[in-house]
Amino acid sequence: PFVRDALVSLFIALSSKGCALQTLLTKIGSRLLALTLRVSSPDPIDKALYLAPPEPMWPRYIDLWIALLGDDLEIATDRGRFQAHNVQSAVASTTTSFVKELLYFCETLDLGIVAIGEQEDNDGKPEIDGVDTIAVAVSLGDKAAASNPGDMQTFLQLVQFAQEVIKRSPRASFLPWIYHLSTELMNIAGKHSSISGFYKLISVVIQVADQGGYFQNSSPDVEQVISLFRYFLRDVLHGTKQFSGELLAAVLRLLLTLPGEILAVEELIEPLLRALELGLQHPKVTDVALDTIENWLNDHHDEVLPHLSKISSQLCANLDSVARLNVIFSERDLESLTNDVKTKSTRRRQQDTKDTVADDKLQTQATCLRIVKILGMMGGAAHGLLSASSMISSRELNAPWDFESKVSVPMGLVRSSAKLKLDSLLPRTSQLALSSQDRATKIAACEALYGVTVYLVGKNAQAPVCDASDYTRTESRYRSIFSKLFPVIFDLAVDREPVARQMFHSLVFQMTRWYAKSQARELDLTLCLFDAIVEGLSNVAKGGDVRDLCASLTAELMKWSIKYVPGSSTSETVSCKYILRTLYGLMDHAAVAYRLGAVAALRRCLVELATHRALLDEHILEMLEVTLRSLSRSSEREVNSEPSSRGADAAMAILIRECLRVMKLNMSWMLNSDSKVAKSFETFVSRTLLEASVRADEFLRHEAQRSFQTVAGFSFIEVKTWLKSKSNIASSYVDTAVPSMRSAELNEKQLMKFTAVLQWSSWMIEMRYVDAEFFKASRITQFQAVGQYISTISNRVEPAFSTDDEALATQNVKQAHARLSQ
């Protein structure tokens, strides 16, 4: 306290001396923040402390920074120790220094993320066209690490420190900085979209602004801030399905704590349902979702009313998850729960670690009680929970997965034998393994399900072999059971329970390798497994972990199916072709989740193809062509009005670049006359890449042009000579794309086509692929169209010119039109 009071007095005294305090903070502000974020040095004597992780020092400086940002300064003013204008000047100078140094650290720290095992272009930084390749790669399941762990650790401490300081400081200190702070943080977050810390900082800034009444003011700055927040958060909202883990939790907290002035309730329904779903695995997120629902029911009841049925259904799923713990509320619990919930945070800090289990149980009971109260607040919207659908789900738990009893275990008795039928136990055992909150029950159910799975795999392997051929399909008697069992196993393989995850994660890979043989007695189950994997590619539950697992299983199935092919040649692998054709079909699916899953699987399959020259020679150009075609058919950019850096289109762009990287590494043998790539390479470039490079879709056009540049760099084609020989093909593409001037003036899409052709021509000249002779010799008419367009515009605006300079400008436009016509 004495040091704090002394510093407060020093800052106020310097503020009364003109710009003395500002000059001092300009010189030492960065050092003060750096000293705050340092960590304690290890104890060289105590071995336990020496090996322990370093302890951050910033919690010791929280009270000091809050005092300097206006807390104790206002108290000093009330006591009459200092003049009010000196105190206000000291607060303003300290806040200015804090905000500037906070943004300076965020901009200068090396926060790059590198995908492990991948050679990213541009040193892991976002590439052209606004596609953050690292963020999309991480969202598709790639492992990543900080390029500078020290700076990343400093940034994490900075985020925690800044959150506490901004929350606990007086609101009036930061309100003048809301515009500058929010715009800068959003710009930095756009560059580092895969780092959750920036979303946490933006969230606390919005909370402080809302609590200080900033959004209720009517001023141009406030309207501009709201508009910027709305634009930024809608882009973030579009990417919530691709986020996972801590990043997803931070984004959901940001979206669900927004004031009504930024985004409407209707736009936040999907994030709310996503938060409730994530709460089944991470209970802390459930509290944020429940707070949001209570706020909406109290303040925005009319807006949320049409969506209450969906919310109540998801709440029922969370309630069922808690109820399976068999939590019984006694009268004593019901009397004390309300007080327990209010004092929950205080008691948690006071309890010893031995009371953690009891505390978690209390939290579970409190969550269950809150859900019940919210369902009661919904009124008639919760009546649908007692419909026939809920009764059907209860009957499904008691009904076996097949009409016939197929899962039986022989039991030897004293004088006889019997068979214990387990069919009716499988549905309920699966439900307990997936949703039970009691760890002992969950592990026991997982062990039982594991044993049944291994038993069925062994029983199916003992089935008689078909007489026709070892690779002729015969129907398996266990297919109906495995079709239900495989999705359950996939969910358990990525479960948050470590025992379940360890058992089933290794099991799914072992089963995939076993069924990759595709023998007659097991071919039916191989197709059943692959169908389950394909369906799992669209599963975005658990932060996309199921999708990433199924993508890895697809590559594993391809890898081992190639190994099991008889003979030395792998170019005629039926399983490989079947897998790729199926994934190509998903690339054109209308749902974004299927396209993302297909891209994730193809990226992993590409790694396997790269190890087999014959398969790579056969499929690499086809994969590129299918991806470009799927990108051209995608409607994602039409829905969002601009390309998103986190959608399926960006993932396809990453796949294109990875295919080109693989081709570049193997181009020494690919361009030999004997390879399939060499025979169809020129056709691919002229018919696919060149055509896509003229498309009106800006995202597709830039990707095709980038691919053309890459191909031209590592191939043996002399581009200028080759284009001259293909001028008729290029001119046909361009002439088809050039619209008439009347349609370009009236239709925005036609004007986009016209702009695309001009950009293509500029790109061709800039890259020195063509010269003036190319356009003279070809039948390309875009320059004549430009002349017509300029003439139309000049005639339209000519009557508005009145001065001599404007008349001269009109004459220059007409002369430019005449030169273009020549």
Order of strands, main sheet, comes to 1-2
Task: Name the structural class.
Answer: mainly alpha
C-alpha Rg (nearest Å): 32 Å
Q: Helix count, per DSSP?
A: 42
**Spatial shape:** globular
Mean pLDDT: 75
As a percent range, the share of strand residues is under 5%
- Low-pLDDT parts are 117-131, 324-334, 344-354, 387-392, 568-572, 639-645, 797-806
- Termini separation comes to 83 Å
* Main sheet attributes: strand count, strand direction, barrel closure: 2 strands, antiparallel
Helix content: 55-70%
Number of strands: 4
Task: Give the secondary structure arrangement, pairings included.
Blueprint: H1 2-15, H2 20-36, H3 47-51, H4 62-68, H5 71-78, H6 84-108, E1 113-115, H7 133-139, E2 144-146, H8 149-168, H9 171-174, H10 178-191, H11 196-211, H12 220-238, H13 245-256, H14 269-279, H15 283-299, H16 301-304, H17 308-323, H18 331-342, H19 344-350, H20 356-378, H21 388-398, E3 408-412, E4 417-421, H22 426-435, H23 439-461, H24 479-493, H25 498-515, H26 523-536, H27 541-563, H28 574-587, H29 592-609, H30 613-633, H31 636-640, H32 648-665, H33 667-670, H34 676-692, H35 698-714, H36 719-725, H37 727-737, H38 741-746, H39 748-766, H40 772-777, H41 782-797, H42 804-821
Antiparallel strand pairs: 1-2, 3-4
Helix pairs in contact: 1-4, 1-6, 2-6, 4-8, 5-6, 6-10, 8-11, 10-11, 10-12, 11-13, 13-14, 13-15, 14-15, 14-17, 15-20, 17-20, 18-20, 22-23, 23-25, 24-25, 24-26, 25-27, 26-27, 27-29, 28-29, 29-32, 30-32, 30-34, 32-35, 34-35, 41-42
